[in-house]
Amino acid sequence: MPAAPVYLPLFPLPDLTFFPHTFLPLHIFEARYRAMIIDCLARDRRLCAVGLEPGYERTYDGKPPVKRIAGAGSIVRCERLATGRFNILLRGESRIRIEREMPTDTLYRVALATPLADVGGDHPDLRDVASTIRERCLQILEALGRSTSEMRESLEAVRSPAELGDQVASAVLPDPTVRQALLEELDVERRLERLTAALDDLLKQITQGR
Fold first, then answer.
1. CA-to-CA distance for 38 and 180, rounded, in angstroms?
2. Are residues 16 and 96 in the same domain?
3. Residues 129, 112: Cα–Cα separation, whole Å
């Protein structure tokens, strides 16, 4: 049964890809988004963090086009500063599809969005793909001089292949276009295969660039 649509405030940023199973720290300083955080805290603490489409610079202060697929999450930590700004931490909960923006009298934008569920996340072959992803990730970190036993233990502790894929894509891949493509892929097997290919490419770039 499809998930029911929800109304979510929009927090758009250039090159932003907000995955489920990840945490996103944000410093909120614009007046419209300070108002958004105040309203979120008074309601269910949920919002949508979404990337901007290319060319956003021309209309950034208004309503520049945003990606249709984004991440929804909840504010799990909030610090209000003496200046009125906020430091917040979002916990990613789901992929969402923005159906349409809603008319509103708020300073910030609000959209009607549909939560999107993973497809095929319990396939037994995904464990093998997840093992490859762990190994590639550790090879990349080692090539960058950042591999540690704690990092290996952290990767091994993530048992869900889908969760592992989202965390690695968010933390390791630098290309926002690749990250967005992975966010938009609902089939877990295809998503992890594409992630593995992206990690292979990244490792090759790092080792050849030495």
1. 28
2. yes
3. 35
